[in-house]
Amino acid sequence: VAKLCVCDLLVAQCDVNCCCDPDCSAADFSLFTTCSVPIVTGDSRLCSQKAAIYSLDVEANPPERIFKLIDQVNPSVFCIHATNYKQALSFSPAEMPTSENFDQLLKRFGSATFSAEPDSWNMNTDAQNPSDANDTYRYEYGVPIQTVDAFLRLPSPVVSSWCSDANPAGFLVNQATKCTRSVSVEECGTIQALSMLFYVNSSILAVPRSSQMVNIQVQSIVVQSLNGMRTLLNGSDVVRLPMILDELCINIVLGVSYHITYTDAGEIIEAAAAFVLGAINKEALSIQQSFEISFTQVNTTPVPLSGNPGYVVGLPIRAGFWPQGYPFPVEILFAALVLNTNRYSQLTILQSTSNQDCLAAQGARTPVLFGYNMVSGCKLRITAAMKCQPLTQILLDLLKGQSFPEYVASFGNSQAQDVLDWVPITHLRTSEQSDNDRIYNTFQSSCQIPVALEIEVKWTKYGSLVNPQAKIVNVTATITTTTLKQLPSGRERTIPITSSVVFTDISSPAEPGYKAWPTINVKLPFDFFFPFV
Predict the structure, then answer these.
(1) pTM for the complete prediction?
(2) pLDDT of residue 127
(3) What is the DSSP string of 452-511?
(4) What is the pLDDT of residues 387-400, one digit of tens each?
(5) Cα–Cα distance measured from residue 456 to residue 499, given in angstroms and rounded to the nearest whole number
(6) What residues contact 448, with CB distance under 8 A and at least 6 apart?
């Protein structure tokens, strides 16, 4: 830094007030009024570096320049410790286009997206690991799914909204992407990404580096019209190719949804694809495509999650049963939670109907959505011929359903084998019976029937203050009963039956005197780490 001088503009001449100019003499410095550049440093992003300090001693006779070399520490949280990457100290010369290399450069950099990685980075793993040739291979989480020619592609946007077909689908990584692709009616038959064959004509390797292949089966085909109406085709096993018809290009791919079935040994045994096909007219310059991939282990029922890890507002509360017997294998609990729950392993309540008839509403349930207070109900017409015991059982089944769960998941992604992540449901019972009813019941025949189910879900914010996760800590189900007096013959009575859900946030506030960790509100420059990745 002692040799650097940004204000030295004149060649072999002293620049006025430039205290670092080597062409200036002591006589020149005595005429200066100030130093235009008082400090000279190198890269300001370094954590520690030398700094050259320039100043003038105006009290001296004549005035003279003062030079100091000090160690300067960068106060920024983000800094570079050492510039040990020699290639970053200078820019590599760009390859200039010529008549010989123009086509090659256009092929590499002419598309909407391109890779800056050199070809030398594509390592031949077969040649480098000959000792692994006899190992038993299996897919692991995140490993790209291999096909006969390369890997299973899941197009996605990269640096812009345009589709890049270089995105591999990772094993057990559920993904959903949307991107834009340029189209034209005249060339729709030649654009590979618009054809179904582009997504199903390459077989998947059952395990990496194996000769066993799994063909991608066409599961379903949905055709979407220009106005957005969708129709499911019956013959879904026939591949439909793009074609021009009446100035329209039909059968172009608008969406693909892959579903992969695998074993616990990391082997893929089935692959299916569901397509959404559409049409474009001459005015269309681009289309939006959507892609999705999901995984299911063989001989298991997929369980939808409601958050990761904390619950997401609006998603169903997951619930299940405790299996018979304890201790028990993990598989039994998983089966109980998956197969013996209400619909889709969810906590449900009575679903209201338009006619408000409780007997007609039997079996109709709606899931309890996290964070949503809910109220539903119906009306029950009671006659004198109805017996107390059967009526009580009908109302209990109506309020709680055929299989009311015993446990709910504390987190949206709680696994069945994690027993401590499941919260038991506390059951309570109250009565609407008044003092007059108690006196009446002492001498007359009466019946206690359930008329309301109230579910209270207590939850708390768990984890970081910056990104808290919703965790359920307690669930209480309260059945309210009322006294039904014996009706005279031929008389009828209508009573309301209600179900409700209330969510209560019991997160404790910060303790007095609690000092949170300081937060850093820093936005890095866009080129801070250049040329590092």
Answers:
(1) 0.47
(2) 41
(3) EEEEEEEEEEES-SSS-EEEEEEEEEEEEEEEEEPPPTT-EEEEEEEEEEEEEE-PPPPP
(4) 888 888 888 988 98
(5) 11
(6) 392, 431, 433, 481, 482, 483, 484
* Contact between residue 340 and residue 403 where contact means Cβ atoms under 8 Å apart: yes
Q: In this structure, are strands 216-224 and 268-280 parallel, antiparallel, or unpaired?
A: parallel
Segment 64-67 long-range contacts (CB within 8 Å, at least 24 positions apart): 64/26, 64/29, 64/30, 65/19, 65/26, 65/29, 65/32, 65/35, 67/2, 67/19
Specify the length of the chain in residues: 533
- Write down the pLDDT at residue 257: 93
CB 20 within 8 A of CB 9: no
Question: Domains of the chain: which residue ranges?
Answer: 2-90, 143-303, 306-434+444-505
- Find how far residue 113's CA is from the centre of its chain: 24
Q: Which two tokens stand for residue 187?
A: 């060339």
Calpha distance 373→504 (Å, rounded): 10
User: What is the C-alpha to C-alpha distance for residues 38 and 53, in angstroms, rounded to an integer?
Assistant: 6
| Strand order through the sheet with 64-73 | 39-41, 48-57, 64-73
Under 8 Å CB-to-CB from 21, ≥6 apart: which residues?
Answer: 5, 7, 8, 14, 15
Q: How far is CA 135 from CA 97, 129, 132, 212, 262, in A?
A: 47, 11, 5, 16, 20
Query: What is d(CA 67, CA 126) in angstroms, rounded to the nearest whole number?
Result: 61
- Report how far residue 507's alpha carbon sits from residue 473's, in angstroms, rounded to the nearest whole number: 10
Give the pLDDT band of residue 424 (cuts 50, 70, 90): very high
User: According to the model, what pLDDT value does residue 187 have?
Assistant: 85
Which tokens belong to 319? 């619930």
Beta-bridged to residue 271, according to DSSP, are 216, 260
Q: Of 113, 95, 94, which is closest to residue 104 (Cα–Cα)? A: 95
Torsion sign over Cα 296, 300, 302, 308: negative
Dihedral angle at the C-alpha atoms of 200, 202, 208, 209, nearest 10 degrees?
Answer: 170
Residues 6+ apart with CB under 8 A from 139: 145, 171, 172, 207, 208, 262, 266, 267, 268
